[in-house]
């Protein structure tokens, strides 16, 4: 029941048949954005006339189309040229900066924000990280263009953002936390790498923020979000997977696709470990119907991953392959039962 009476509403996306392939490449973005838009529309229809609700809906749609236009103008293709990355011929190791960027990118399930003054510097990092994403995920990545300081758009996998003339960038913290996955923030100017909270914490924060957003809209209150502490934390985790990968990749010749093949093999090795983890968890939990018998320490031993960073990278990869795996293994941070505490204490 709305002010317009009892009614059912639907939203339809109409596009030319020749654009079907382009739509399918970004369908997940449509799903994520429109779920949020529709939840707003349902509340607005209760509070306002249909005309006013649709006017507000038009604003949301325009924001969505603006995001799509940036992908059309500066989006990545499914393949990345090695010459556009830090693995190009003639380039040597970037030290700890590239290592920290890749580690954090993998920990945040392949989602990163790259900041800088020069689009050329930003785009090298964007292309490098995109090598570690799947071809379908690359269609949801965006380069930076020097004269176009686009804002942050939630739920893009990788996006380059140009700093203003004062070297500052405003990131809407709430929008970052409302994205499906946590984010890495890489500043190529200061060579700083930070990341938002881990996935299990991020899921809880996201749920709370989206709920608060709807409640404030329904109660006609201003939705102000002020974090009580610093959201983005520096990356400092012990691992060996990325360290070994970077050491070996630069020892290979950058000709005849040798490095390309090695990078693909590295991704396959992560996915193989992640699939092994998924199968272990499914077997011990009867495909999720029972609590997990093993704690995280035992899982790390079974996988031969002694370092926390290595296990968390594999766990994030498992989440991308089978959504829900991360929360099932680590547990909801809000639920302080004995089983979850035992798991978390082993990190």
Structure commentary:
With about 350 residues, the protein is an alpha/beta fold. About 50% of the residues lie in helices and about 5% in strands. The protein has 14 helices and six strands. It has a six-stranded mixed β-sheet. Strand 4 (about 185) and strand 5 (about 190-195) form a beta hairpin. Helix 2 runs antiparallel to helix 3, helix 2 (about 25-45) packs parallel to helix 8 and helix 10 crosses helix 12. The radius of gyration is 22 Å and the shape is globular. Mean pLDDT is about 85; it is low at about 335-345.
The biggest beta sheet is recorded as: 6 strands, mixed
What's the tally of helices?
A: 14
**Range of helix content:** 40-55%
Give the structural class: alpha/beta
Uncertain spans: 336-344
Task: State the distance separating the first and last CA atoms.
Answer: 49 Å
Task: Sum up the overall morphology in one term.
Answer: globular
Q: Which H/E pattern describes the elements?
A: HHHHEHHEEHEEHEHHHHHH
């Amino acid at each position: 029941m709305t002010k317009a009476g009892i009614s059912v509403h639907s939203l339809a996306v109409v596009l030319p048949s020749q654009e079907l392939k382009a739509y399918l490449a970004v369908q997940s973005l449509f799903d994520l954005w429109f779920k949020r838009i529709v939840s707003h529309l349902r509340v607005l229809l209760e509070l306002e006339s249909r005309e006013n609700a649709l006017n507000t809906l038009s604003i949301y749609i325009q924001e969505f189309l603006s995001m799509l236009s940036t992908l059309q103008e500066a989006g990545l293709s499914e393949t990345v040229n090695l010459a556009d990355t830090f693995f190009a011929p003639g380039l040597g190791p970037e030290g700890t900066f590239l290592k920290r960027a890749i580690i954090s990118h993998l920990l945040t399930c392949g989602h990163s924000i790259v900041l800088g003054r020069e689009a050329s510097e930003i785009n090298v990092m964007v292309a490098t990280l995109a090598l570690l994403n799947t071809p379908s995920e690359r269609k949801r990545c965006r380069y930076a263009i020097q004269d176009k300081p686009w804002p942050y758009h939630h739920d893009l996998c990788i996006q380059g953002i140009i700093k203003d003339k004062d070297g500052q960038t405003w990131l809407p913290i709430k929008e970052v936390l409302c994205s499906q996955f946590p984010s890495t923030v890489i500043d190529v100017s200061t060579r700083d790498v930070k990341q938002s909270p881990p996935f299990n914490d991020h899921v809880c924060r996201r749920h709370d923020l989206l709920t608060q957003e709807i409640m404030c809209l329904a109660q006609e209150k201003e939705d102000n979000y002020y974090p009580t502490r610093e959201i983005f934390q520096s990356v400092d985790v012990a691992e060996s997977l990325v360290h070994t990968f970077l050491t070996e990749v630069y020892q290979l010749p950058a000709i005849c696709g040798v490095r390309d093949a090695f990078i693909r093999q590295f991704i396959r090795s992560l996915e193989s470990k992640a699939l092994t983890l998924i199968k272990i968890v499914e077997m011990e939990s009867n495909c999720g119907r029972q609590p997990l018998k093993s704690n995280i320490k035992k899982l790390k031993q079974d996988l031969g991953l002694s370092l926390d960073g290595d296990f968390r990278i594999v766990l994030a990869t498992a989440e991308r392959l089978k959504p829900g795996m991360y929360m099932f293994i680590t547990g909801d941070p809000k639920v302080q039962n004995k089983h979850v505490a035992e798991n978390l204490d082993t990190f």
